[in-house]
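Design job #97: recover the sequence.
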């Protein structure tokens, strides 16, 4: 006899497993289907977590080589053990994926290893690893299948020499020349890792700027800093093909707006041109579900409901493709299914780029406010003038706060500096509660801390910055 559930979730990434946990907490009988052997999705297995492990290790390696001596710390010759570094990365991934599996047991979630497909309303077909099938009956289905790397026409990824983030996180040696196609978050983070470890890194970007989702002023500062760290940028350039030669790769390039072609040699090419929703074989057609031309699943109510009893969350629907957005989506849908209120404000989902220094933002950019015709005031404060940043010798970057010119309500915050990925949470809380810039400016911050730069930027909205 087929199992019957309150909710069956297809996909065990951050959206899916958080939805399952919240469902279990609310007393719902839930099953979580995941085709990988381990839970956690792209984020835990080949994305957020392993990349942060390598970013941290490579930061320390670079600091030992270049910064320690200036601080009076003599360490002698520093060498790289890439195999051990990769092993520590894998250790972190293993521990976290095992932790998610434990949470499934703790919350009485049935974890089913297989590929899920919607057979009909209230029925999910699971293709098990041994070739057999299992049908689950359920009152609700949640699609949490996430996303996969976008492809470029004419460029065949082999995850050996031409790689996505998956292959770039598992290289067995440091390439002499590495070319990144795409100057978004994923590309820049991977570029920083391999540049610090000794690769000559070139970033090729079709647009005329890096980080298209970030505030333009922040992106410009980030490019200046990363160039100083050794990355080379070729903007307004498209890659037409990549040729696999015996000893190297040859990229064929041309200006985005047309012009004289050129070539670029590489040992490794990383394709990082964004991500697209993963819905292959999902069976959307069996319940009348539809996707837009980009593959984004269409919802009825603007957020989660696909059809009666079918919901979708995370990267496969509208909104930012971020793990923490998927987590919020998952918890909200579980609450809706349980008869509670569930909603996520996608306009207040923070973004972080884990380069050095970090880049973080939430809310609207200056260009967005201008395009929407919203009058605003700006407060900006450089880390060069922050006491803690000066004592730490980490003064690159600034904090910028944008507030409504009439109401003073904070509309956006944009930061670049060491540790701003941790600091952005303060601004998210403020904006969730509709805070004015004056609310932040009049809130005491410990001294000396990097977070004082947030307060000073808020003071700057009304022109009473104290520390410049």
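Job complete. Output follows.
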């Amino acid at each position: 006899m087929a199992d019957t559930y309150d909710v069956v979730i297809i996909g065990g990434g951050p959206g899916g497993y958080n939805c399952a946990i919240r469902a279990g907490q609310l007393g719902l009988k839930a099953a979580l289907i995941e085709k990988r052997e381990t839970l956690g999705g792209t984020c835990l297995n080949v994305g957020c977590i392993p990349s942060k492990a390598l970013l941290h290790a490579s930061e320390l390696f670079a600091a030992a080589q270049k910064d320690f001596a200036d601080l009076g710390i003599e360490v002698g010759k520093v060498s790289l053990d890439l195999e051990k570094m990769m092993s520590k990365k894998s250790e972190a991934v293993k521990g976290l994926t095992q932790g998610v599996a434990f949470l499934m047991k703790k919350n009485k979630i049935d974890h089913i290893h297989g590929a899920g497909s919607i057979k009909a309303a209230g029925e999910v077909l699971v293709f098990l690893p041994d070739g057999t099938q299992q049908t689950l009956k359920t009152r609700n289905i949640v699609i949490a299948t996430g996303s996969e790397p976008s492809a470029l026409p004419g460029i065949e990824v082999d995850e050996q020499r031409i790689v996505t983030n998956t292959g770039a996180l598992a290289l067995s040696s440091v390439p002499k020349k590495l070319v990144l196609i795409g100057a978004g978050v994923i590309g820049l983070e991977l570029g920083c890792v391999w540049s610090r470890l000794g690769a000559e890194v070139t970033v090729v970007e079709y647009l005329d700027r890096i980080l298209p989702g970030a505030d333009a002023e922040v992106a410009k500062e980030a490019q200046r800093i990363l160039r100083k760290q050794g990355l080379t940028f070729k903007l307004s350039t498209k890659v037409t093909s990549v040729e696999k030669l015996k000893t190297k790769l040859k990229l064929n390039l041309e200006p985005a707006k047309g012009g004289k072609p050129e070539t670029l040699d590489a040992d490794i090419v990383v394709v990082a041109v964004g991500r697209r929703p993963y819905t292959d074989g999902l069976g959307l057609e069996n319940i009348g579900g539809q996707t837009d031309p980009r593959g984004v699943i269409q919802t009825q109510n603007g957020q989660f409901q696909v059809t009666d009893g079918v919901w979708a969350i995370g990267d496969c629907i509208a909104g930012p493709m971020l793990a923490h957005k998927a987590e919020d989506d998952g918890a909200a849908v579980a609450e809706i299914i349980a008869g509670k209120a569930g909603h996520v404000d996608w306009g207040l989902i923070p973004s972080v780029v884990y380069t050095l220094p970090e880049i973080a933002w939430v809310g609207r950019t200056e260009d967005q406010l201008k395009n929407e015709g919203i009058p605003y005031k700006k407060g900006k404060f450089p880390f060069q003038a922050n006491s803690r940043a000066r004592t730490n010798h980490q003064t690159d970057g600034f904090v910028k706060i944008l507030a409504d010119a009439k109401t003073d309500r904070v509309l956006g915050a944009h930061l670049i500096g060491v540790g701003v990925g941790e600091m952005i949470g303060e601004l998210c809380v403020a904006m969730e509660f509709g805070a004015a810039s004056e609310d932040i400016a009049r809130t005491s911050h410990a001294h000396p801390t990097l977070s004082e730069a947030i307060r000073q930027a808020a003071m700057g909205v009304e022109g009473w910055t104290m520390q410049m």
